[in-house]
Amino acid sequence: MWTTSESPMTELNPSRASAVASGPSLLRIEDVAVRFGGARDVLARLSLEVRAGEFVTLLGPSGCGKSTLLNLTAGTLRPRQGSVTFDGKPVTSVNRNVGYVTQEDTMLPWLTLAANVGLPLRLRRVPRVEAQERALALLTSFGLTNAAALYPAQLSGGMKKRGLLARALIYQPRLLLMDEPFAALDSQLRAQLQTELRRVVMETGVAVLFVTHDLEEAALLSDRVVVIGGTPGRVIAEVAIGLGPERDAETLRFDDRFRDIGRTLQQSLRRARGDNA
Amino acid sequence: MNQDMTSAMTGQREDEEAVPPPYDEGTAEETTAKMSRWRLFAGRLAVLVVGVGIWQLVAGNLIAEFYLPKPAQVLTALVGWAKDGSLFGHIAATLVPAVKGFVIATIAAILLGYALTMAKLAAKVIEPFIAALYGIPIIALIPLMILWVGIGEELAVAVAVLASFFLMFYNVYFGIREVSQALIDQVMIAGGSKWDIAMRVRLPSALVWVVAGMKVAVPHSIVGVVVAEFLTGHRGLGFLLSSNAAQFNAAGTFAAVAMLAAISFVLDRLLFLLTRRALMWKEASLR
To answer: Which of A109, A143, A149 is nearest residue B22 as measured by Cβ atoms?
Structure first.
């Protein structure tokens, strides 16, 4: 499906594109290559930067190494070559300054929702009572007060996603990693959670590195979209999404600028897949 | 219940804040729980009564009492043993080595299971040998055990250990090993140490398997003791069973079997009560 030879090298200079954002550099991935056994790299010579408070989305076909970039940032994976720097320090072991929401359901099934959300605080030696209070307060802001005492098996998909987001945010990380968090949800719930995520990001000022293969989701949420594709995966294009901080998903769909952005992303995505267009 | 949740979830946040605090409908829920528990108990009692009733009708009418004694005769045999005081001695003679053997096997299984999960290479090397040992019929090892520990209570304990160890080991081993890496990564990123991973992720995750293993291993440890008593005993329910059968005393044989069934039942209930709190989250998903 992906042919490596003919896709034109239209890589933009990452540093130029990220000049759009104003905050100081938070995450800097430089010239990394990753290989999972075998002879081929999954990622090769890829560089990426996320600035404080910036919402960056990695867009690309599945299997192009988007999630791998999140794992590099979280420190659960080491690059074969190149460096990952977070907040000025090289990431050499598990990075505890990020929050990570993965595709999987990673709630601990033997803890209640409140205990799950409070868990990071307990692991950081916050006293039990304080952890519980803070977890309940956060759950309230996510509309989950009534579910606090339930076990994960008793929660719906949407409640679980909200809970996982709350758990990733409770220790106030500076960067939130999200790996296709809304992929398995129905469109209505998905739209609702997207709006909620925008709200949380605005309120907390947390930077986000978000992975999706959904073009519209990328345009809707991000300040900047990085299109990744090819084998091995590399940056195909970077697109600044100049839609401003206040966005209403309902009206945005009919906005000309939104359509233009969609078209640009569509073209980049096609190149990322290796189609000639 | 599920519908409640869905509506709570899709509803507007402003609405949700107005919703009363969780679980004030608890009393109604408790009543239904009590009722269903009572129904369960009544159902089980009914099964027992009907079963014994059919037995009473069949024995002596369709099948000669020599082969199938009436329940009343079995009860008489049991009461007789209880009166002369021999019954509890026999029960203790079976139960004590079974419990000892089970506890030893469980501790050994948890230690070895955890060690092998941590030492992956060692685990790969040893695994086929453990499987080979597991494949040996326990009865084939009894002569060897007699040679090693003699024919007293030690033999019964040793056989109980053999009978329950592998069942516990495999459950502990896979329980600890099969924890999803995604869960471990999440807890590490959230700030967990290696110790946190062991105590807050691996252990609770293995607990379901350990309890499942116990459910099978406890009866097996009793089987082990009974087999040992068959072969060499002069006390215990296994001895009671084999000596009554040797005298063609069907009522006595049935009485011994009934005692074994009763013990298994009581132990299983005990285990259920002991582990229920720890597995509350599992039950929650079944409600």
So the answer is: A149
